[in-house]
Design goal:
Blueprint (H helix, E strand, L loop, with lengths): L6 E5 L5 E8 L3 E7 L2 E7 L7 E7 L3 E2 L3 H8 L11 E12 L2 E10 L2 E16 L5 E12 L18 E15 L3
Antiparallel strand pairs: 1-4, 1-11, 2-3, 2-11, 3-6, 4-5, 5-7, 7-8, 8-9, 9-10, 10-11
InterPro entries: Lipid/polyisoprenoid-bd_YceI, TTHA0802/YceI-like_sf
Organism: Georgenia thermotolerans
Protein name: Polyisoprenoid-binding protein
């Protein structure tokens, strides 16, 4: 079993992926990711003493469709102009070793709700430039309505255009914080 090296880390935004998947028209899934993510991770000697804090630039959404991205940034969805950041602040860690649950408060669109991330420690390495790195994967599912994201359109055949359940996937890479 790999052990997460204790210490303070900074999320490497260029090697981190915060993505989501949501059902569209009841028949397919749309994926998107955020291009600007930053944060810190503190790993305690005891994993339960660890913490994470992440900030996401809501306007940095990229679904591969400029019109959809603009609609998501609008007041219909998360109003990125007046609510430019989303945050996650951990409140606890359960488990140990490679797999654990990271609990915390997620704020989207100005609304805060508790979430639990099923997380996995992917390992630690020293990269080709001599810099230590650690990696994590995590997933959760949220209800977009619980975050005030209620825009939708009724379908002629029944149901709605945008599903309520959103699967969130994270691939996090971090380097030691500079003292």
């Amino acid at each position: 079993m790999a052990t997460v090296p204790a210490g303070s880390y900074v999320i490497d935004g260029s090697h981190t992926d915060v993505a989501f998947t949501v059902r569209h028209a009841g028949i397919s899934k749309v994926r998107g990711k955020f291009e600007k993510v930053e944060g810190t991770i503190t790993v305690g000697e005891n994993l339960a003493d660890s913490a994470a804090s992440v900030t996401i630039d809501a306007a940095s959404i990229n679904t591969g469709d400029a019109n959809r991205d603009g609609h998501l940034r609008s007041a219909d969805f998360w109003d990125a102009e007046s609510k430019p950041t989303w945050t996650f602040v951990s409140t606890g860690v359960e488990g140990d070793g490679e797999e654990f649950v990271l609990k915390g408060d997620l704020t989207i669109n100005g609304v805060t709700n508790p979430v639990a991330l099923d997380a996995e420690f992917n390992g630690s390495v020293v990269d080709a430039f001599g810099s230590p790195r650690i990696g994590f994967s995590a997933t959760t599912e949220i209800s977009r309505k619980e975050f005030g994201l209620t825009w939708n359109a009724a379908m002629e055949t029944g149901g709605f255009l945008v599903g309520d359940k959103v699967k969130v996937q994270l691939e996090i890479e971090a380097t030691p914080a500079q003292a």
